[in-house]
Design goal:
Blueprint lengths: L14 H15 L15 E10 L2 E9 L10 E7 L5 E3 L4 E2 L6 E3 L5 E5 L2 E10 L5 E8 L7 E2 L14 E4 L5 E5 L5 E5 L6 E7 L4 H4 L12 E10 L2 E8 L5 E7 L7 E7 L11 E5 L2 E8 L11 E7 L29 E2 L2 E2 L1 E3 L2 E4 L5 E4 L6 E10 L2 E10 L4 E7 L6 E7 L4 E11 L5 E10 L7 E9 L21 E3 L3 E5 L9 E5 L7 E5 L9 E10 L5 E10 L2 E6 L4 E2 L6 E8 L6 E10 L6 E8 L1
Antiparallel strand pairs: 1-2, 2-3, 3-4, 3-5, 4-23, 6-8, 7-8, 8-9, 9-10, 11-12, 12-13, 13-14, 15-16, 16-17, 17-18, 19-20, 20-21, 22-33, 24-27, 25-26, 27-32, 28-31, 28-33, 29-30, 29-32, 34-37, 35-36, 36-44, 37-43, 38-42, 38-44, 39-40, 39-41, 39-43
The structure holds beta-L-arabinofuranose.
């Protein structure tokens, strides 16, 4: 964007204006694209994506454009997260202008990086005392904050914007930023101070492409540098040639250059005249985040973050991508039998979120006809009931549970009555019938006029009490209940490395590759039946190849059935194994033991969310 002559600043639109308008607009817009997952957040405008992966979760840090904005009127930053690239959890506002007492405006494009268990959020803001833009740094011991001002003053300030941090393999960290120039400085180990002076990266046409007709900006580089290293190549992906911007990139043999311009990642598209890149690998795929004006009321100052999945070309080059409304495919499924935050959303129509008195955020500002879609919910053989944590300062309403579409099959209706306050929480439970398989779940809200109720979280109960699965305590939320060691070692319930909910199962002290967590399924199997098995595994260290196995003993003979293809797992994140297998035996079945083993070695590993259906 052109920093020299900003358009006039707009006033803040009252928050509730959007609440009235947005549902109407979204209802029209989203009658059409049933498969749309982009933009990734619909209940607020988001901009300037900065993805980060931590503990197997992808966190997405964004700015927030105010409703009805006529300038980059931005006062807070937001964070969302996902484990499946389809359903995104809103973690609220972990940092805002108020975090920085020395700043008074322009909560613009930032970047978060983790070092030694601390999360550093570098952001450009306007410094109150000078009126010039400077880079501040927030710090937190959690990826979702809250973040505090690490310094009480700018880290660096030269009137330029869009910081991005990068830690090289040798541990040296760099901060890049700039518009109209491109700067870097070497950060110290503490990530909140630096050595040497800010240095300009020469903006040569060989390095950053040629811009014509603008003598003061001879190259394509505009703003938003996103620097990372992959297979020995350093990449700088950036917003190019305002306005409208496209996304271009350069590569270099080192973190400070020399850079070579490589071309276009995303052409100029859509109704936002800025764009902003964020690139990351997650769960074996590469993702490109950007922003556009695709939501109703969207445009250059009311932007929304979107994402595409891509593969690097064999030579390491980045393919050119277009904006889509479909977005990336979902990875895995969502488990309805563990508590899910109501603000875990694939698509929202009409709702907003707000801080909850029970911690985190809740869904609120719900009116008649609003709805939330949750993508790919694995009901298995069936749910019997649904419980939601609700509060209502009015007379409440109903939560309709529908499958496949907002007018799809109704599998349950939960009544919500007034609780005497919007943060007076209680549970409501209703029967569910017909929720089977893996389906998109719609929570559709009905009632009278005005705001109806708030929801903090929800969960289903399975018909069989086991999540529709043969496995007892497959989500590990009941500790080690139901599980025993096959072979040797120790099982423990772990609360620090979890795939969902608050616990996983950890197997340590294995002495044989076949040792693993196990369950006796003898009385539960049907001869000749095909079962679908799903599980999530993560090593404590090492990269073992993991497989779930069924040992069937019938007529004195034991046979071994592999339930899913093997998968190599690692310590950096969770890997899902899923597959189908037909179980059969001759004669009388005397023992059926399900266990998770490795192809070789004795690495310790975590297990979570195991289902056999
Ligand atoms: O969001 C405000 C500014 O717009 C960012 O700092 C730039 O990268 C552009 O996206």
């Amino acid at each position: 964007m052109n920093l020299a002559s900003p358009p006039p600043r707009g006033g803040r639109t009252r928050r509730r204006l959007a609440l009235v308008l947005v549902p109407l607009m979204l209802a029209t817009f989203f009658a059409v694209p049933a498969r749309a997952d982009n933009p990734v957040v619909q209940h607020v405008y988001t901009a300037d994506p900065a993805p980060m992966v931590h503990n197997g979760r992808l966190y997405l840090y964004t700015g927030r454009d105010e409703d009805g904005s006529t300038y980059f009127t931005m006062r807070e930053w937001r964070v969302f997260s996902t484990t499946d690239m389809s359903n995104w959890t809103d973690h609220g506002v972990p940092m805002s202008l108020a975090t920085f007492s020395w700043a008074d405006a322009d909560a613009w494009a930032g970047h978060v990086i983790e070092r030694n268990g601390q999360f550093y959020w570098y952001v450009p803001v306007r410094q109150r005392s000078t009126g010039a833009r400077a880079i501040g740094v927030g710090v937190s011991n959690s990826p979702t904050g809250p973040f505090r001002d690490a310094l009480g003053r700018p880290l660096v300030g030269n009137g330029e914007i869009d910081p991005h941090a990068f830690i090289d393999d040798n541990g040296q960290a760099y901060l890049y930023w700039g518009n109209p120039n491109l700067w870097y400085v070497r950060l110290n180990q503490d990530m909140i101070s630096y050595s040497g002076s800010p240095t300009q990266i020469p903006l040569t046409t060989a390095g950053f492409g040629t811009r014509t007709g603008n003598a003061s900006r001879p190259t394509l580089y505009e703003e938003g540098p996103w620097v990372y290293k992959r297979n020995g190549i350093y990449y700088n992906v950036f917003a190019a040639e305002c306005c409208s911007e496209f996304i271009g990139y350069s590569t270099a043999p080192g973190p400070t250059g020399p850079w070579t311009y490589r071309g276009t990642v995303m052409p100029r598209q859509g109704t936002s005249f800025t764009n902003h890149p964020g690139i990351i690998d997650y769960a074996g795929n590469s993702y490109f985040f950007y922003h556009n004006g695709a939501l109703p009321g969207g445009g250059g100052y009311t932007r929304s973050v979107a994402v595409e999945r891509f593969s690097y070309n064999a030579d390491g080059s980045i393919p050119t991508m277009n904006m889509t409304s479909a977005g990336p495919p979902q990875i895995g499924t969502l488990n309805p039998y563990v508590t899910q935050e109501a603000e875990t959303i694939n698509w929202a129509n009409g709702i907003e979120t707000e801080p909850s008195s029970e911690g985190g955020v809740n869904v609120g500002w719900i009116e008649n006809g609003d709805w939330i879609r949750v993508r790919g919910v694995a009901f298995g053989t069936g749910a019997s009931s649904f419980t939601a944590r609700v509060a209502s300062g009015s007379s409440g309403g109903n939560i309709e549970l529908r499958l496949d579409s907002v007018t799809g099959p109704l599998v349950g209706t939960c009544a919500v009555t007034g609780t005497g306050g919007w943060q007076n929480w209680t549970n409501t439970t209703c029967n569910v019938s017909g929720a089977t398989g893996t389906r998109d779940l719609y929570l559709r809200f009905t009632g009278g006029s005005g705001y109806l109720f708030n929801i903090n979280n929800w969960r289903f109960t399975a018909g069989s009490g086991t999540g529709g699965s043969l496995v007892t305590n497959g989500n590990m939320e009941s500790g080690t209940t139901g599980w025993s060691v096959f072979g040797s070692g120790t099982l423990s319930s772990n609360t620090s490395v979890v795939r969902s909910g608050s616990r996983s199962l950890l197997h340590t002290g294995r002495t044989g590759s076949w040792n693993g967590p196990s369950q006796d399924l003898t009385s539960q199997l049907t001869n000749g039946r095909t079962y679908t098995t799903t599980l999530w595994v993560r090593s404590q260290s090492g990269t073992p190849s993991v497989r779930p196995t069924l040992a069937l003993t019938a007529n004195g003979t034991t046979s071994y059935l592999q339930l899913t293809p093997s998968a190599t797992v690692n310590a950096n994140g969770w890997t899902q194994l899923t597959g189908t297998a037909t179980v059969s035996w001759s004669g009388s079945l005397t023992n059926a033991r399900f266990y998770v083993e490795t192809a070789s070695g004795t690495d310790s590993f975590y297990l979570d969310d195991v289902t056999i259906q």
